[in-house]
Amino acid sequence: MHTALLILTDGRFPAGGHAHSGGAEAAVQAGRIHDTATLHAFLTGRLHTTGLTAAALAAAAADGTDPLVLDDAADARTPSPAQRAASRRLGRQLLRAARTAWPHPRLDSLAAARPKGAHQPVALGVTARAAGLSPEDAAAAAAHESVSGPATACVRLLGLDPHQVAAVLARLAPDVDAVTAAAAEAARRARTRGPDELPAASAPLLDRYAEQHASWKVRLFAS
Fold it and tell me: For 165-181, what is each residue's pLDDT tens digit?
């Protein structure tokens, strides 16, 4: 495994992900997540919908597909205004960190073209390419992030046993691997057939939660 992948997926990498719950905070408030079993169900659904979509976008960006085209594709696949805003904030923070860690003209070009931030999966894919990682690596990073961030958030939100939460993530490993493979294959098709080949799996409940969460005056996480 490339060491850059470990750095990129490390929760201590200063890309801002620790401040976001990926919809978990609103799901906890709604009573949908209240223990490790319901956390597992939430993460499974998130992985196979928005996680798959993000992983494919990241893989396509790492494969060299025009990131601005992919950024438009990401926008079309993110119906919630609150989620779009959060994704661009995270993309901007990721690019800032990545340009310091792995200086590259592609990162500079994307930052200049999207000064308010490219969507996070696109920024992730371009970062992976700049760091010498493969499209499969980029897909794996995005798929992993789609479950690890909300899982960590639930330790803070619910006081869940971190050992049991780690076990939930371990049980999800085969699903993460399957989503990674599907995303990388979609990115390969998109190389010749265009971004319509990328998945557009939706999660309407996450969209609803994002809009509700954005209206809260008191919250622990930014999204």
Answer: 999 999 999 999 999 99
